[in-house]
Amino acid sequence: SPYRNNNDYNNDDYNNQNNNDINRQNRNNNNNNKKQNNNNNNNNIAAKATVDAEILMEKEQHIRELTANVEILELKVAKLEQLVRLKDNKIQKLMTQLQK
């Protein structure tokens, strides 16, 4: 029939209320998921920052070690250059003696 009875209206009200409750719950779930995602993102950022800081410290330590190695090698080069000068002087003296 084209006319609705009271039960039809009551069913509609009940269904509307259920739909509203479901929609509210979905919004709450979405908000909770967003908060959780934000927390996860913040945790990931913090973890990445910690890892980045550790990597940076390791690289700085490696740079210090390499710098120390360079300094040692520069000292060795200076000593070898000094030795070459001493040898050149000795060779020059011997050449002078030979020519006498």
Structural notes for this entry:
The chain is mainly α. Helix content is 94%, strand content 0%. The chain has one helix spanning 6-99. It is rod-shaped, with a radius of gyration of 42 Å. The model has no long low-confidence stretch (mean pLDDT 83).
Distinctive features:
1 helix, 100 residues, mainly alpha, single chain
How many strands, what sense, and barrel or not for the largest sheet? Answer: none
Helix content, binned percent? over 70%
Mean pLDDT across every amino acid position: 83
Number of DSSP helical runs? 1
The class by helix and strand makeup works out as: mainly alpha
Q: Count of DSSP E strands? A: 0
Portion of residues in beta strands equals under 5%
Q: Flag low-confidence runs.
A: none
Elements, N to C (H/E): H
**Rg over CA atoms:** 42 Å
- What best-fitting shape do the alpha-carbon axes yield? rod-shaped
N/C terminus separation: 141 Å
